Amino acid sequence: MGAPADLMMEITDEDLSPIMTNRAQPLPPFVIAATLAGHLYSMMHTAKLMLLSASNAKGVAARAGDKALGFRPITDFIAEMANDTILYATKINQLALTVSRTSVTSMRAQDGARRFIEARQQLSGADKTGMIDHLVQASTEAQSAMQTEISDIMSQLSLQLDEIHQRVRGSTIVVSTSRTEASRAGEFQQYLNSIADSVELAASELQREITECRQLIDVLNSN
Amino acid sequence: MKSTNLYNKRHRWVTFGRDPKKVSGIIDTNQYIIIDGDRALLMDPGGIEIFSAMLASVLRLCKIETITDIFASHQDPDIISSLGLWDQTVPSARLHAPWLWESFLRHFGLNHIEYVGIPDEGSTLTLESVEVQFIPAHYLHASGNYHVYDPEARILMSGDVGAALEEDGSPLFVDDFNEHVNKMKLFHQRWMPSNRAKNDWIKRVRALDIDIMAPQHGRIFKGDDVKRFLDWFEALEVGVAIS
């Protein structure tokens, strides 16, 4: 039996920071890309919790009636933000997995080129080494094409992460407005405040994940 | 890596091994090639770690495009983990390997080479003119396993059967059978799981005309040592990890 899904996707700072900073050898790009995909999976999970908060907020707002009139559009905004985050995180997750897969293939091509070069060094005579030259060239060209593909995907990935970031930044205003509206909601104030707290917590978590993702993207881009 | 001719008439058998530059800690392996005009069959080409030395050794004998066929007796890493690299080297080649292991062997990276699954009862392959037989050797030791027999050269490439565990750089041929037994006993008792499969294989192989029996590890048997081996193996109890 496999581990529960939540345990499988959970990648914490403790897991990541040491491998980024304390390793004698830099991590291969496919590991970084897979780690990035893990962060994005985590972001989707957080955004789903945010969506749940929005759903709860709608229920409370409905029960509160006129006392929570100002809260209703806020719940719509939270839901929209959560849905957008899920959408973009899903897209980026797929892109990150593609980068990881392509990086693995690229490394295999690189390994192939290295071993072809080793074989060439063991041969003497241009007629023999010439047989290997085209293998080295083919591997190098394949690797170069894959690097271009990775670079293109990385650009898309950065743009889509920016989209998420913009929405998460908007959450600061939403939380602040939610608290103002909660203060006018009488006996529902406590519920609405707790919803604002959970949105604030989720937004903070998303912000932290975005920062981690940006660091990983920087590392990938520097490779 | 040393290359040694086993047969050189109308076609040629060469074995590769005893590489002094081999990475330590990995089992030494014997690789084989049959070169028949413009076609060659590379047999059990080995693991990733010996690929560069193998490629260089092969190219000393023939052109890349001559390698039209590859054979893998079974799925072990020391047999064929270099497959992904051969796939880049000879993309038009065909891999002849047990049908049973196709979806497993593809994990080594098979994007271009065509997989030709050998059926349980075995099959044949004709190179330019020579025809070789893929002889069933199931459960010796893998559950889908074949050896290569060349009736013209009277050579049986016997995979792990006849293998020995000994120091790197040992002689290529068995010189004292009785002394060599000590180097084979544990390997056969432990790696070979089935007495029934063993006896079935011995019966099949006794019907063949064999001058050379060439295993994938250890030393090669010539002449009367082939029969000595079959007699010894027949008397040996295998599958000893469970008593």
What percent of residues of chain B adopt helix (DSSP H or I)? Answer: 25-40%
Distance between the termini of chain A: 37 Å
Main sheet: strands, sense, barrel of chain A: none
Greatest interface (CB-CB under 8 A), with counts per chain: A-B, 17 and 15 residues
Q: Choose one word for the global shape of chain A.
A: rod-shaped
Q: What is the percent of helical residues of chain A?
A: over 70%
Question: SSE layout and pairings?
Answer:
The complex is a heterodimer of chains A (223) and B (243).
Chain A (H helix, E strand, L loop, with lengths): L4 H5 L3 H9 L7 H36 L6 H51 L4 H57 L6 H34 L1
Chain B lengths: L1 E7 L3 E6 L13 E6 L2 E5 L7 H9 L7 E5 L5 H4 L2 H7 L4 E5 L3 H4 L8 E5 L4 E4 L4 E6 L9 E5 L4 E3 L19 H15 L3 H12 L5 E3 L6 E2 L1 H12 L8
Parallel strand pairs in B: 4-5, 5-6, 6-7, 11-12
Antiparallel strand pairs in B: 1-2, 2-3, 3-4, 8-9, 9-10, 10-11, 12-13
Features:
A: 223 residues, mainly alpha, 6 helices, rod-shaped, disordered N terminus, B: 243 residues, alpha/beta, 6-stranded mixed β-sheet, 7 helices, 26% strand
Can you walk me through this structure?
- The complex is a heterodimer of chains A (223) and B (243).
- Chain A is mainly alpha-helical and 223 residues long.
- In chain A, 86% of the residues lie in helices and 0% in strands.
- In chain A, α3 packs antiparallel against α6 (189-222), α4 runs antiparallel to α5 and α5 packs antiparallel against α6 (189-222).
- Chain B is of the alpha/beta class and 243 residues long.
- Chain B has one domain: Metallo-beta-lactamase, Chain A, CATH 3.60.15.10.
- In chain B, 26% of the residues lie in helices and 26% in strands.
- In chain B, a hairpin with a 2-residue loop joins β3 (31-36) and β4.
- The model of chain B has no long low-confidence stretch (mean pLDDT 96).
- The interface between A and B is medium-sized, with 17 and 15 residues.
